[in-house]
Design goal:
The protein is elongated, with a radius of gyration of 35 Å. By secondary structure, the chain is of the alpha/beta class. The chain has an 8-stranded mixed sheet with strand order 11-10-12-13-9-14-15-16, with helices on both faces. Strands 1-2-4-3 form a 4-stranded antiparallel sheet, with helices on one face. It has a two-stranded antiparallel sheet with strand order 5-8. The chain contains 15 helices and 16 strands.
Length: 533
């Protein structure tokens, strides 16, 4: 039986359908080209409307009334101005065209293959810590989806992680320090060594945020900081940690940096400071920085237990009462400081009983700066003399009322030799140089929220004032101006802050401008008992 031919519409229907689709595509492209301005303006109006709704939702309810009044005033002013509505429509169309422009291709969406591989490897490494066999729907599993665990991520130009938000299951013991330390160590190892990471744990939301911190500036030299009397700048920290900035002059440029300000005086809660570090970490630099700031409003006594001569530039300067390196001079200076503290206490007490303000000679701050006092303690024990630290008990305990501040700098190997009064009354703490997490927690009283790096520049460390947070710290460059290895800019910065020399360098400087009258301990006890009665 012969086959019947197919109808014409079926025989050449595929060609007609293809031609129709081509015509429809061409018509659509032509319509898109013709209507492209209208589409762009419509998209821009929609984005502007969404931004307006978000702004209205974020505005507090008590401010919505004034905002409506302002908008109504603007509309009324536009309506009354000649050609105002026309100009307003033109400006609105221009803004909508700018907002509705095609932004595709400017920034790639999503990570590339290398970044995906890095995130996947990091996800796989965290599976043993964030998963259990009893979990029916584990968030972390081998071969699982990392997109659910990492809702936010950012990379730098080299492809390393700079910001990462990590979700973890609710049964993870995030309240235990050991469990958190394991996760932080893993993340810092897998994300790249040699960088400092900040870990923010959100126990309520079961989320950990990892942020790579930028290095603190090391090119800031000591200078006359804009501070009030009783404020001392220990260094500079991250801008997100403090709510204050200081203007600095850096060459021909000026910038604002966030400082770590230590407040001393009668109303201070941390009147004394302890700085600990390794050799070459910058503890002597910190003491020189504090001394140059203290000389602006007070007098200082320096005891250099290491005998390195790092404070020779201060010898004989106005306001420097003594710079002692030998045991005999250190004992004499500290004995005078103890007597001076008692004299000030008695003078202040008598003035208060009489209803008068404190005398002027008790208001000028007195600073006792001791660098490695344990070295002198060993010499004193060998010679049969008293430990110089035993003379610090009165200035440490009553120094706040007498405007006497004690600053002690010591190395880690001599930390155990510090006396109990020094440990108890120095509640402002600074750790400089390379240190382990255990050493930082032992000195500061709390672990830092960042990971310490193995190599740091001089003057780099952490600071904690009392019960406050642990802050990253970079001490301003305050080198010894007599050191040949010092740069000319930093040497000149220190020399500009030194007060004039009142005593020749080759002469024996006077330890005190006027030797105070010695006061016995019985007189102090009697004076205090009279004040209580």
């Amino acid at each position: 039986m012969a086959r019947r031919p197919l109808p014409r519409i079926l025989s050449n229907g595929s060609a007609q359908l293809a031609r129709s689709r081509e015509l429809a595509r061409t018509a659509a492209d032509s319509a898109t080209d013709v209507l492209h301005p209208l589409i762009t303006i419509t998209r821009g109006l929609r984005r502007l409307a969404s931004a307006g709704r978000r702004k209205w939702a974020d505005t507090p309810k008590d401010r919505r009334g004034p905002l409506l009044f302002l908008m109504a005033s603007v509309f009324l002013a536009v309506a009354l101005v000649p050609y105002g509505p026309l100009l307003a429509v033109i400006a609105l169309m221009a803004a909508a065209a700018w907002q509705g422009r095609n932004r595709t291709g400017q920034t790639p969406e999503g990570p590339d293959e290398s970044q995906i591989q890095r995130l996947q490897s990091l996800y796989e490494a965290m599976v043993p810590y964030f998963s259990t066999a009893e979990d029916p729907a584990p968030l972390y599993a081998h071969g699982g989806e990392w997109e659910k665990a990492f809702p936010e991520y950012e990379f730098d130009a080299t492809g390393r992680i700079t910001h990462l938000a990590i979700r973890y299951p609710a049964y993870f013991p995030d309240g235990e320090a050991e469990a958190r330390a394991r996760i932080e160590h893993l993340l810092s190892t897998k994300s790249g060594r040699g960088r400092e990471y900040r870990f923010a744990w959100d126990e309520e939301g079961n989320q950990l945020t990892v942020t790579v911190l930028a290095p603190l500036p090391t090119d800031i030299a000591v200078q006359r900081f804009v501070t009030a009397p009783g404020e001392t700048v220990l260094g500079f920290t991250d801008p997100t940690e403090v709510q204050r900035t200081l203007p600095l002059g850096h060459g021909a440029q000026a910038r604002d940096v966030p400082p770590v300000v230590w407040r001393t005086g009668i109303r201070s809660t941390e009147p004394h400071l302890l700085a600990v570090g390794q050799p070459g970490s910058g503890t002597s630099t910190l003491l020189r920085c504090i001394a140059l700031q203290a000389l602006q409003f007070g007098d200082i006594v320096i005891v250099d237990g290491g005998g390195t001569g790092d404070y020779a530039c201060l010898t004989g300067r106005d306001g420097v009462l003594a710079v002692e390196c030998a045991l005999a001079g250190a004992l004499a200076s500290l004995e005078w400081a103890t007597t001076e503290t008692e004299r000030r206490l008695i003078a202040v007490n008598r003035a208060r009983q009489a209803g008068h303000p404190p005398p002027e000679d008790t208001r000028r701050p007195l600073w006792l700066l001791l660098d490695r006092p344990t070295a002198l303690g060993q010499v004193a024990a060998a010679d049969g003399h008293k430990d110089p630290q035993s003379l610090l008990q009165v200035p440490l305990r009553h120094g706040r009322s007498a405007h006497v501040t004690v600053v002690v700098a010591e190395q880690f190997d001599g930390l155990d030799a510090l006396s109990d009064p020094v440990r108890q009354h120095t509640r402002a703490r600074v750790v400089l140089g390379t240190a382990t997490a255990e050493q930082l927690e032992a000195v500061l009283g709390a672990p830092p929220h960042t990971t310490p790096v193995p190599q740091v520049p001089p003057g780099r460390g952490y600071a904690r004032l009392g019960a406050g947070p642990v802050l990253r710290l970079q001490v301003p460059a305050t080198p010894d101006p007599y050191d040949d290895a010092t740069s000319d800019d930093h040497r000149q910065a220190v020399l500009d802050l030194l007060p004039p020399r009142t005593t020749p360098a080759d002469a024996a400087p006077e330890r005190v401008p006027a030797e105070p009258e010695p006061v016995s301990a019985e007189a102090v006890v009697a004076e205090r008992s009279r004040a209580r009665t």
